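Please predict the structure of the following assembly.
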Amino acid sequence: MSVPPVLTLDVDAVCKSFGGIQALTDVSFEVRGGEILGLIGPNGAGKSVLINVVSGIYPPDSGTLRFRGSDITRLSSHMLGRLGIARTFQNIRLFRRMTVLENVLVAEKRHLLRPFSSVLGFGTRRAEIEAAMAGLARMHLADRAEQLAGTLAYGDARRLEIARALAGEPRLLFLDEPAAGMNERETEALKEDIARVRGAVDAIVIVEHDMELLRGLASRMVALDYGRKIAEGTPQEVLSNPQVVETYLGGARHA
Amino acid sequence: MISDYLMLTGLNILLAWSVYVILLSGSLSFANGGFMGIGCYAAGVVTVKLGWPLLLALPVAGLAAGLLGAVVGLPALRTRGVYLILVTIGITACVKVTIESIPYLGGVQGFGGMGGSALWQVWGLVALVGAALFALSRTPLQRILDAIREDETVARCLGANVVYLKVAMFGIGAALAAVAGGLYGHYYVFVTPDHFNILVSIYLVLYVILGGVNNPWGPALGATAMSLLPEASRVLQDWRPTVFGVLILGLLLVRPQGLLPFRLRTARPPRPRP
């Protein structure tokens, strides 16, 4: 099947500063349907700030965000979550004292939209639990369903975060440094997991400064440095861009 | 005599639950002594000045305090942690001072003439609220609240309307404290604003912390123990507060999670179909 490259997210001239620090300056790019976009840049380039702006945690100072054609610039994070923007966190943030299964079930939209109605129906429907179990199985976590999330090994915790983000059936998935702290073998496994779930969402944006994960996975890339976009295009174009090579890949920046 | 203890214990269980309900959404409230006072005076005015029956006055008191709690909670719940604690302490202080300065309510002299609250009313309500909280602990709502308590930002990103849920739970907790306050006033017949000082709020929170914050039984056990222990230790005479304080400290050292720390799961994997 071929998905036409419709626009999923349109980031237009977004600026964000914290006190005197300009974290993002006029950042513009788009996320197209069907793609996996790699967002790269050295530490402090503004990648995480950008994710936090797009997921509504920080409102942008100026600029516009459009999601599937409608303006979402001023929407709060819970509205963005409901519209279908899901994310994971750089420093894994699970509901540690809840079970693996419960972590995924929290994302069930029907209850999030009408939390008090869920009291009248009492328990969780069997179909919901089965869907959650299927989501866990997709991430190889089905046999850990009853374990407390806080007791998971590192790689499993990362995968549970992805499973939880996908459980709300989002359109757009942001992964914030999903391979951080993983060795080569774990990164390879994660790559397969991401490739497997890509059909479940319209598009995935992966923020990474480790190139290993993005190789062969990302169809396009955007490079940031000091809060500005310095390159955008196919991986070959971006990785051969002289500015990207100099500021990032070469690592030859002088202190 | 026995019925006095039963009354006190039942009321304290309801009040501990009023703190627990708010804590479900992650806010530690020291305002419940104040809400209890509002409920006590509101119900008192309705029965004494308007002549309504108590069972009609209690819902009025609950509604009034619940709405006030939600209105006050909307700005108050924007604060977090220590600041929220300070704001809720302030609410309790405000309620006391406000009642003291209203002559219609008897001012510092107090307000009397209530009566008619019975043991069956208090324990009937304990059974009702207990059943509701136990039922709640299996629902998706409980799961969403647990998620908010664990990590507000993540819950919000998943689509939970955190502000709405926090304000709603604050209002429900305030209403429950107010109904308990109404029953309290109509049992003791005469109250002064000083019955609802900050120390009361602190005690209510203590019941919950000592009993355990993760299930409805914890606060109930904490409230029961704290209601009966002081009476049981009457032989200690002047040393009572000291021994009591040391006991609490010891318990917090040995069981910082409270007496009943377990959490009930809201869902389990399905058993394979036969």
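The first strand of chain B starts at residue 111 and ends at 112. Chain B has one domain: 2-196.
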